[in-house]
Amino acid sequence: MRDEWTRGRHSFGSADELHNSVQTKVTSDKTGATRLGCALLLKCFQLEGRFPHAKYEIPRSVVDYLAHQLKLDSALFQQYDWEGRTIKVHRAQIREELGFREATAADSDAISAWLVNTHLSRDQHIDHLKAKVLTEFRERKIEPPTPDRIERLIHSACASYEQALFASVMQRLSPVTRTRLDALLDWSMRMEDQDEPADDEPSSKGVPRREVITWTDLKTNPGAVGLECVLSEIDKLRILSQLALPADLFGDVSPAVITLYRQRAATETLYELRRHPDATRYTLLAAFCLQRTAEVTDSLVDLLLLVVHRIGARADKPGCRATRHCAHQERKERIVCTRPDGDRTSDRDAYWGNGATPWPGGAFDARFAWDGVERRT
After folding, report:
1. What single string gives the DSSP state of each residue in 332-360?
2. Cα–Cα distance for residue pair 208/177, rounded to 1 Å
3. Which residues contact 38 (CB under 8 A, 6 or more apart)?
4. Residue 285: is it exposed, middle or buried by C-beta count within 10 angstroms (0-12/13-18/19+)?
5. pTM, rounded to two decimals
6. Which of 78, 251, 281, 346 could be joined to 276 by an S-S link, Cβ 3.0–4.6 Å?
7. What are the pLDDT tens digits along the chain (377 aa)?
């Protein structure tokens, strides 16, 4: 509210407009501190659709400006009773003047249902939702409840939305997928229990670590570029692909909301994930695995490109044995020899004549046909 009120004259309009807006039946029969306080409440409600919760919400510059327009001393505002019966009467008069009414429990339920149906599938940021709720109350000409009640309303709407979403996601998952998700958690918990007693011993009893993919491994990023890293990412992608998660599992839910559930799954321990109800557990795991599948696929493609680039860089080095061998073979195949009679043949035919004797004197012209040697790696 303070940002809006600090606009001063631009928020209130011209002096005549301000004078006409406060000269209503709400303020016309009041004087002194009562008139100034009521006028400030009126302007606040006109600008914000709600009343200020404390005097400090109204900037001093706004009090001075409005008091000047009303030809009153701004110090009178400190005498205005903020907690008594007078301010309650003023709020009721302002609501009646502007066509508003107080919010009821039914209004809160209606706003909660409106949030579930229109916004929670796209955005669940608490500050964004507060702004939307205040705007909706104002459009419905209802005085919004206190900030604490609005926050409770939003949390209640989010809880209702999650229950419906989790139940829907669970129904879309096949029994095989559910079994594999639970098996992934159970296997990971057993592996963690085996690793805890002796951290200095190999965790897989001689089996390469990349062949033992656990929940913790799925959360890790690729390491240094190399064969082991590529094989490890392939194993991750294999495990994730075996879950057979539908691409449209979350329907019209935005990726930003899915990311919230994915982050919850990534930050909770295996024990905490296992304690959730079935619908909650499957939804959190599915959100993580669905997004992680795309990330692992992209990482694997990047790794393969880096490996190919590294192979090419090594092959381009002058001292590379494979490069020298390929260039030598290519050069031998591309030598073209010219006989005195103009016939063209290869160097092998020129020397040996396909079994015949060499040319008289063994004299010939050799020309190297270099149109670029393709180096093979």
Report:
1. HHHEEEE-TTS-EEEHHHHHHGGGSPPPG
2. 27
3. 26, 27, 30, 90, 93, 94
4. buried
5. 0.69
6. 281
7. 445 555 544 455 544 455 555 456 677 778 888 888 888 898 888 888 888 888 888 888 888 888 888 888 888 888 888 888 988 999 998 998 888 999 999 999 999 999 999 999 999 999 999 999 999 999 999 999 989 999 999 999 999 999 999 999 999 999 999 999 999 999 888 887 776 544 444 444 443 444 578 888 888 888 788 788 888 888 889 999 999 999 899 989 999 999 999 999 999 999 999 999 999 999 999 999 999 999 999 988 888 888 888 777 776 666 555 555 555 555 555 544 444 455 544 444 443 344 444 444 444 343 333 344 344 33
Residue with tokens 């958690």: 185
Give the pair of three-digit tokens for residue 165. Answer: 């979403």
User: What distances in angstroms separate CA 344 from CA 29, 176, 347, 355, one per listed residue?
Assistant: 118, 70, 10, 17
For CA atoms 104, 106, 112, 115, give the dihedral sign.
negative
What is the C-alpha to C-alpha distance for residues 322 and 319, in angstroms, rounded to an integer?
9
Query: Any bridge partners for residue 142, and if so which?
Result: 101
Tokens of 200: 């200095």
Q: What is the pLDDT of residues 99-114, one digit of tens each?
A: 899 999 999 999 999 9
Instruction: Count Cβ atoms within 10 A of the Cβ of residue 268 and give its class: 0-12 exposed, 13-18 middle, 19 or more buried.
Output: middle
Q: Which amino acid is at 135?
A: T
From the CB of residue 138, how many other CB atoms can be counted at a distance below 10 Å? Answer: 16
User: Are 344 and 334 within 8 A, CB to CB?
Assistant: no
Distance from C-alpha of 28 to C-alpha of 11, rounded to nearest angstrom: 22
Nearest to 96 by CA among 106, 88, 104, 105: 88
For residue 263, the 8-state DSSP code is H
What is the C-alpha to C-alpha distance for residues 340 and 65, in angstroms, rounded to an integer?
110
Quote the CA–CA distance of 330 and 327 in Å, as a whole number: 5
| Structure token pair of residue 85 | 């019966």
In this structure, what token pair is assigned to residue 96? 């009646």
